[in-house]
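JOB MANIFEST
job_type = single_chain_structure
chain_count = 1
residues = 123
[input]
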Amino acid sequence: MRLMNSETSWGVPARLLHWAVAGVILFLLGLGTWMTYFVDDVLGQFRLVQIHKSWGFIVFSLALVRIVWRLRTGEPRVCPITCRRLNGLPPMRASGALRADVSDADLGLVDGLGLAAAGPVRG
């Protein structure tokens, strides 16, 4: 396995960053669902919101590292064979579809940063 991205595949750091962000986002989805629907105690919810915010900033930091890595190493010119096999699309269409998904996720991340910067809601 290569450290740097090649013309046909992603490097190890790019893959690790990808799956780290994906794993933390899945954790945050579960935590957010749990604290919203299953925790009735206001203090318990507050504690979970603070944990949720902290992990959100970790996702943001990993995303920044991922962007820097991507700018430094570039991307494969050809969609890797797994991309074509999983999506069943020609390489350029698959790549465009993945970029559209990332753009949607980035908008949610920016919105979340605004909410996190606002601090806790006082009622």
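[summary]
Residues 103-107 have pLDDT under 50 and may be disordered.
The two ends are 53 Å apart (CA to CA).
exit_status = 0
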